[in-house]
Amino acid sequence: MTSATGQWKVGDLRLSSGRRRSDQRMRALFTTAALTTLLITLLIIFILFRDAWTFFVDVPKGDLWNIGWFPRRGIFDVKTLIVGSFMVTGIAMLIAVPLGLGVAIYLSEFAKPGVRKVLKPIIEVLAGIPSVVLGYFAISFINPSIVTNLIGGANKAFNIASAGVAVGILTIPIIASVTEDALRAVPLALREASYGLGARRVPTVFRVVLPASISGVVAALILGVSRAIGETMVVAIAAGAVGGGLFSTDAFQPGQTMTAAMAALGFGSDQVAGDGLAFQSLFFIGFLLFVITLLLNLAGDRLVRRVREEY
Amino acid sequence: MGLATPSRFGAQSASDLTERLTGSSRDIKGRAVEWTLLSALLLTLLILVALVVNLVDRAWPILSGRLGDFLSSGIDASNAADAGVWQAIRGTLILAIIVAIVAFPLGIACAVYLEEYAGRSRVARLIRINVRNLAGVPSIVYGILGLTIFVKFAGGITGGRTVISGGLALSVLVLPVVIITTSEALRAVPRSIREGALGVGATQWETVRSHVLPSAAPGILTGTVLALSRAAGEAAPILLVGAVTGLLRTGNQSLWTQITEGGFTSMPVAIFSYARQTGADFQAVTGAASLILLVLVILINGLAIWLRNRFERNW
């Protein structure tokens, strides 16, 4: 058969080799880009683990559980940093959980569409505030005007509590947006069934909608904790104790967190040159931080998926 | 009276009946809960207002006195009267350009792979989980990555502690943001658009280039703009990579010097430097710098929201 007869050959339907080649080339390019993200994760793990392990082998184990965190003097009390991080995170959650959940429930279940349309972008603005700005807010407003006024005996310019409050403000939008997504994923039919049985709005929200989206709400809290633990600049600016700090559980004293300790070790021109152990402690703390946030993020991610798949 | 009217229940009118059905009292508990939730929202807004008012209040001596001078002066951590943010603004712009060059193409390409090519394969699932986790990695960890890879390992190419290393570290940081927002934009493009192109014999790449990407462009643009604002506000990673926190001695280094010899800074790093100084006049400097950064970031985010609303399509 020839084309002269007006009929097609199978070969005519085949792609020209140029088009096929460019298609394959682009496919390879996109695949490479996607694999790069895996490479990034592997690199993070490899880099952190390598030096963290060297540090762990080299450091006298007694120094890991001592009286404070003074890396430049060879005192690496990790407990000081972990307790500091937990205190900041705990205070942050005291602020962020009620406000974040309140905002989410109100916007999703109570606000009229017009009100929601105006308020939601404003809450999103909060999510975009750079953390250095909130760090400055902590030392210029939260501490002098609120913390020292409300708490008798709190008179430090830099302390864990004010840093915690500022980190909490940063965490509100995350908790609010993840919770709101979860609440809005609950089908309208569930609410209507509840109303149809004569339930009012409050029982409907708290006995039907919230339980139906509970895994999403828990996910919001987990992701909030992860964000608060990883926050660096607020704590570096507002919590004091730049070079090191004694072990302390007093939230109204200067304190040190894992992230702030890393920033203090890593920045500037005096980047712990010379002392190998101090520099490697940066990687050790980084590895701890990475593992903690990774576990939290994986758990949170799983729960978020679950809500989405359920409905 | 033949008909069974509500009067059988002792009610005289519809409103009486409503009252009997809803109980004698108003829904007081419901109102109370609603107001409590509303007050959480109002308190959150109040925090935002307090933040802005506090910044303006602190920054007022500079805003009213020497705003032009402040914007054009260099970083000076020894004398508040001469301190400014010129190099910081320039550094932030250069970093943003590097992020746009590196992170946008890479992120968009990754998202295209995930949404258009990968399907439901196991590798694709792994990459998706991986990207979502990268989005939650603390920013300072990206600083360590930048320090080890871009400053030490690839120092011969990047020049070590230079603005290029900083830009690359920020690019890695915002990559997940670009990927996630681009994926969402691609997912919103209806199947029929792709089928239209594939149906007339376009290859997959031709479909993506001529149909999918143009249809998703507004969403992708919004995502990249948001990623830029995130990069503009981050300090922790570039601190570790080696941004200068004190006085930039050479004053107005050329771009070439920043690239070859290092010595760069950015707005968030400058704010961090100023916040560590003591004294009321440095409070004003820090406040003014914070206000400028906040306005910048809100403007960028506003642009993103405007783009989203302006070009949003309902298929």
Structure description:
The complex is a heterodimer of chains A (311) and B (315). Chain A is mostly helical. Chain A contains 11 helices and 3 strands. Chain A has a 3-stranded antiparallel beta sheet with strand order 2-1-3. Chain A is flat and about 90 Å long. By secondary structure, chain B is an all-alpha fold. The radius of gyration of chain B is 27 Å and the shape is flat. Classes of the chains: A mainly alpha (311), B mainly alpha (315). Chains A and B meet through helix 1, helix 2, helix 3, helix 4 and helix 5 of A and helix 2, helix 4, helix 5, helix 6 and helix 8 of B.
Overall mean pLDDT of chain A: 86
Number of helices of chain A: 11
Strand numbers in spatial order across the main sheet of chain A: 2-1-3
- According to DSSP, the number of beta strands of chain B is 0
- In DSSP terms (H or I, runs of 4 or more residues), the helix count of chain B works out at 14
Radius of gyration of chain B, whole Å = 27 Å
Short description:
Chain A has 311 residues and is mainly α.
Which labels suit this protein?
heterodimer, A: 311 residues, mainly alpha, 11 helices, B: 315 residues, 14 helices, 0% strand
Q: Helices, strands, pairings?
A:
The complex is a heterodimer of chains A (311) and B (315).
Chain A lengths: L16 H42 L9 E3 L4 E2 L1 H33 L2 H16 L2 H20 L9 H26 L2 H9 L4 H12 L1 H17 L2 H6 L6 E2 L11 H9 L9 H35 L1
Antiparallel strand pairs in A: 1-2, 1-3
Chain B lengths: L13 H9 L5 H38 L1 H6 L13 H32 L4 H15 L2 H15 L1 H4 L4 H25 L3 H9 L4 H30 L2 H6 L13 H7 L5 H9 L4 H32 L4
Helix pairs in contact in B: 2-14, 4-8, 4-10, 4-13, 5-8, 6-8, 8-10, 9-10, 10-14, 13-14
